[in-house]
Amino acid sequence: MKILLIGSGGREHALAWKMAQNKKVTKIYVAPGNAGTAIEHKCENVALHSNNEYVKFAKANKIDLTVVGPEIPLVDGVVDLFKKNKLKIFGPNKKAAQLEGSKVFAKKFMQKHNIPTAKFGSFTNPKSAIKYLKEKCDFPIVIKADGLAAGKGVEICPDLKSAINCINEFMVKNIFKTAGSKVVIEEFLEGPEASIICITDGNTIYPFISSKDHKQVFDNDKGPNTGGMGAICPNPYVTKSVLNDFVKQIMLPTLNGLKKDKIDFMGFIFFGIMITKKGPKLLEYNVRMGDPETESILPLLKNDLVDVFNKALSKKLKDVKLSWEKKASINVVLCSKGYPKKAETGKEIKIKKLKNSKIFFAGTKLENKKLITSGGRVLSVVSTGKTLSEATKKVYTDIKNINFFGMHYRKDIDK
Fold it and tell me: d(Cα 217, Cα 309) in Å, to the nearest integer?
């Protein structure tokens, strides 16, 4: 069996590593991949960068299954293109991918189907947005760019001045290009956050084990938002009670809403939730696995991931029973100097032998047989243990054996 995996991050390395464990899989082509997928068992990187190139490659190489890692190809309709060419692909179609591609679409969907979420307003004009901030809002407030912004299009604004500045950055200066031409302004919710990634075939939906992302760049949740500085799994705040409320009030109403709206969704749905005093509320949808959550989740999954994908594709997910290791895992992301703003890249990475951790590579490349940084988030270092404290001790001990110029990371991912 030959697989094409689209993407280049730590999430894709983790997916490739997990799928390679299937005995029927002979080759995984990763497009475009990174330095980790270049050397991972059964894997080979291929220089493909567009939906048309993926289709052409899948046809020419008789690919049995294509799996989409990141959101951009999904939002751009890669699944629709593959299906048009009668090629097997795991992921939601373009219509379904609007749940992540547009914050406005997602919030209106939540509102329509009575899914608990923060109160909000949506705007296409900066003057209207600022008027709303002045007349209708209590602070702090949350402002979100409507479109895709690599996990960075969300700002928590403590006061009116910072909120107006954010509107100008997003809508006037266009720092996220067209992604910020529309914005959502929503009430600030308090409580611990949780990531719950679910898999669905359109009829059946199952939650994966919960995880907790750490978005801010510095310890104690200080500094600007990033794509994610690390994750723990399972999330200690997702109790049985919280999970039950999530399933009844958020997960199942989402699936039922998709059916009512005639949106045929097959793939991953990521639910970002806030566990408030009034119960879990939905912050956002993603239409793929999260990064850095994937790297901490997949080491705990007992099931064969390729088999799960095939069951979903054949609308037989009800025949699957997900099974998890009774362990905890932690992923600490090592970043380049300057991240999440302008990252300094091209630095050599030196790694001594690690005793207890697996490295999933992200912003890396091989150059003249040297491992070089090529992005903001460089490496995900993942450890598992019987307890979170055991896993934490392992991962931070092993990180001491990794070094590159300007390397920085959070020291409190277990919190």
Answer: 33
